[in-house]
Amino acid sequence: MDTQNRVGVVVVSAGRGSRMGTRESKQYLLLENKPIIMHTLEVFDRMPLVHEIVLVTGAEDVERCAGWIAHYGLRKVVNIVPGGKERQQSVYKGLLEISTEWVMVHDGVRPFIEPERIEACYQKALLAGAAVLAVPVKDTIKQVSGSGMIEATPDRRSLWAIHTPQAFRLSDLLKAHEQAEADGFAGTDDSMLVERMGIPVAVVEGSYTNIKITTPEDLEYAAFMLKRGEREG
Ligand SMILES: Nc1ccn([C@@H]2O[C@H](COP(=O)(O)OP(=O)(O)OP(=O)(O)O)[C@@H](O)[C@H]2O)c(=O)n1
Ligand SMILES: C[C@](O)(CO)[C@H](O)COP(=O)(O)O
């Protein structure tokens, strides 16, 4: 596969993990004796599709991440950059270091992403212009007012929970981030920024196991998933 057909990846890992409630930021907690962020990076590092990885961390974590990357023998992390106050700013800082035409953005705390799903998301982006992984929601979703009353029940058949990775043409995503910043718009994912530029984004069905480790019960599930992987592995 030549360099032109390969993709750059921004892995964001500069959050505080406040919902996890641990002293250590959640992305550095150990699973099977290895920091969660290293589990995530390894998946991308091993894929021939991936040309380069930019890791975005807290400024105080750059050095220890560099140490782990060397320790675990990762070869594709070309830069480790300090992130911003919000996820959106962290992604933008990572994007500035990417050299490929296409880029994928992934949460450092989604270590169970499967290579086949990454590949499918990227291939769809090449065809459609942009693509995100997602799963159909399983629960009935209600829109609820500030006073706790149900206002609406959207048709579940059209509702998807959006995951990462998300794949874009680098120039589109940079423009979308710069426009959002200029407009003071804060999105909770990257596709929101691209959608508001009028760029269509395709949805690719992902896997329910691609959880974002967010709260303490997610850690128990993650430990179970790793054990299961070992047994099947
Ligand atoms: N300023 C930020 C905030 C978040 N992230 C990253 O974005 C991903 C998804 O965010 P989330 O799960 O919300 O992480 P936190 O912001 O750390 O969690 P919390 O909201 O509970 O503090 C994580 O990999 C996180 O490290 C980031 O790089 N920079
Ligand atoms: C990007 C994301 O993971 C898609 O589900 C999610 O929106 C991140 O949100 P968070 O509030 O930063 O966890």
Automatic annotation (TrEMBL):
Keywords: Isoprene biosynthesis, Nucleotidyltransferase, Transferase. SUPFAM superfamilies: Nucleotide-diphospho-sugar transferases. One of its GO terms (biological process) is isopentenyl diphosphate biosynthetic process, methylerythritol 4-phosphate pathway. Its EC number is 2.7.7.60. It catalyses: 2-C-methyl-D-erythritol 4-phosphate + CTP + H(+) = 4-CDP-2-C-methyl-D-erythritol + diphosphate. InterPro entries: IspD, IspD/TarI, IspD/TarI_cytidylyltransf_bact, ISPD_synthase_CS, Nucleotide-diphossugar_trans. GO terms for molecular function: 2-C-methyl-D-erythritol 4-phosphate cytidylyltransferase activity. It holds the Pfam family IspD. The record marks R19, K26 as: Transition state stabilizer. Pathway: Isoprenoid biosynthesis; isopentenyl diphosphate biosynthesis via DXP pathway; isopentenyl diphosphate from 1-deoxy-D-xylulose 5-phosphate: step 2/6. CDD domains: CDP-ME_synthetase (cd02516). The record marks R156, K212 as: Positions MEP for the nucleophilic attack. It is an enzyme of class 2 (transferase). Gene3D superfamilies: Spore Coat Polysaccharide Biosynthesis Protein SpsA, Chain A. Catalyzes the formation of 4-diphosphocytidyl-2-C-methyl-D-erythritol from CTP and 2-C-methyl-D-erythritol 4-phosphate (MEP). Belongs to the IspD/TarI cytidylyltransferase family. IspD subfamily. This is 2-C-methyl-D-erythritol 4-phosphate cytidylyltransferase. It comes from Paenibacillus albilobatus. The lineage of its organism: Bacteria, Bacillati, Bacillota, Bacilli, Bacillales.
